[in-house]
Automatic annotation (TrEMBL):
EC number: 3.1.2.-
Cross-referenced CDD domains: PaaI_thioesterase
Top-level taxonomy: Bacteria, Thermotogati, Deinococcota, Deinococci, Thermales
Entry protein name: Acyl-coenzyme A thioesterase PaaI
Organism: Calidithermus terrae
Gene encoding the protein: paaI
Class of this enzyme: hydrolase
Length: 125
């Protein structure tokens, strides 16, 4: 499994660490990530969290695809802020798994993403 894709690279998202059921990513909010109010666009925050979700959920060697996601936005972020997405596995089942991703600026939680994936069967299973 690749630890990056063209979309992550376009947005400036960096992989800090990936392990079984977890991922840690980071990105710096640039002027291209701002909305019409001058704060970080919600789509950028979602993309950062979703990338961590994808890496964590695919870390077990079985292809996983999203079934559902939800995002709560708590605090605005601005240009220059370094954001981190920390994904943790909340439940791992045979066919589905659920993840919690916190988007943080230092110790401050900016947003919370939750998602559930469908785990495809491995070849020969």
């Amino acid at each position: 499994m690749s630890l990056s894709d063209a979309y992550m690279e376009l947005l400036g998202i960096k992989v800090e660490a990936v392990g079984a059921g977890r991922a840690h990513l980071s990105a710096v909010v640039g002027p291209q990530h701002l909305n019409l109010h001058g704060s970080c666009h919600g789509g950028f925050l979602y993309s950062l969290a979703d990338a961590a979700f994808a890496l964590a959920s695919n870390s077990h060697g079985v292809a996983a695809v999203a079934l559902s996601t939800h995002m709560e936005y708590f605090k605005p972020a601005k240009a220059g802020d370094r954001l981190e997405a920390h994904a943790t596995e909340e439940n791992l089942g045979r066919r589905t798994a659920t993840y919690r991703i916190e988007v943080r600026r230092g110790a401050e939680r900016v947003a919370l993403f939750t998602g559930t994936v469908f785990r495809k069967e491995a070849a020969g299973s």
